[in-house]
Design goal:
Blueprint (H helix, E strand, L loop, with lengths): L2 H7 L1 E4 L2 E4 L21 H8 L2 H11 L3 E7 L7 E5 L14 H8 L7 E8 L5 E10 L5 E10 L4 H8 L18 H15 L8 H14 L8 H9 L3 H18 L1
Antiparallel strand pairs: 1-2, 1-5, 3-4, 3-7, 5-6, 6-7
Length: about 260
């Protein structure tokens, strides 16, 4: 997609009316922007690089109908450093910022870290729902922009089919809880472990307790503060018994290596 095509083809909706986004020159002296172009430090570049896996994750969960773009604000003419599903707008690594993105940076009233959602229309007539997130460094200075563009013109059946797996590709469902407090996480994890051990009916109480501690150790629950005391109370043993079982499990694990 050419730069001219990007400028002429993108339209934004406002109150049901299409407003063509026009690239205009801004007098920085008359309207000081909230963003100042500068040479990035190595820390800035490394921090921005850490967001590349986030770009992949967003694109995976929203499927190929969603384009995710990571832009560096160090160089506006060579801004895109990562793009997934770029076929939606035609953007590629090394492409410049759009006129809309530049206008956001030049807007002296811009104070939001998240812009949108808003709607644009491409030169091919597709309607896109977009949102942009400003990425800042540890000094609260903008260094990047993550742009998420969802193609609303894609057939609805295509969107749904990418969100819901078929029976053939359906992975094994794993038990996941969403606790509000650490204690809930510990108690819920213990509940899952206990349910999994129900099939082992011939275990002695001691062996059963050791298996519980081993399972809780493997899933990292004892890294949570207070986990030992909570598990000990639920099992009806002392915290020292839990520590003994943990040491025994770790010794066996070292011998296996």
């Amino acid at each position: 997609m050419s730069n001219q095509g990007s400028r002429d083809g993108l339209k934004r909706f406002n109150g049901g009316n299409e407003i063509k986004i026009i690239e205009t020159e801004v007098n920085v002296k008359e309207q000081p922007s909230w963003f100042t172009k500068r040479k990035f430090s190595m820390t800035d570049k490394m921090l921005l690089h850490t967001f590349e896996s986030t770009v992949d994750a967003i694109a995976l969960i929203l499927s190929n109908n969603c384009e995710v773009v990571l832009c560096s604000l160090e160089s506006w003419d060579n801004a895109i450093v990562k793009v997934v599903n770029g076929n939606i707008t035609g953007r590629k690594v090394g492409a410049p910022l759009t006129n809309l993105e530049i206008s956001i940076l030049k807007n002296p009233k811009q104070k939001k870290n998240v812009i949108g959602p808003y709607f644009v229309r491409t030169e091919t007539g597709e309607t896109i729902k977009s949102v942009k997130a400003i990425i800042k460094n540890f000094e609260d200075q903008p260094i990047g922009m993550c742009c998420v563009n969802f193609n609303l013109s894609a057939p609805f059946i295509n969107i749904i089919s990418t969100m819901i797996p078929t029976d053939v590709s359906l992975p094994q469902v794993k038990p996941v809880r969403y606790p509000a407090r650490p204690q809930e996480l510990i108690e819920q994890s213990l509940e899952i472990v206990l349910s999994q051990l129900k099939k082992f009916k011939d275990l002695s109480q001691t062996e059963r307790n050791k298996r519980i501690v081993l399972e809780m150790l493997d899933i990292g629950i004892f890294e949570i503060k207070g986990a030992v005391d909570i598990v000990a109370a639920e099992m009806g043993v002392t915290r020292y018994t839990i520590y003994n079982y943990m040491r025994e499990a770790k010794v066996k694990a070292r011998k296996r290596k």
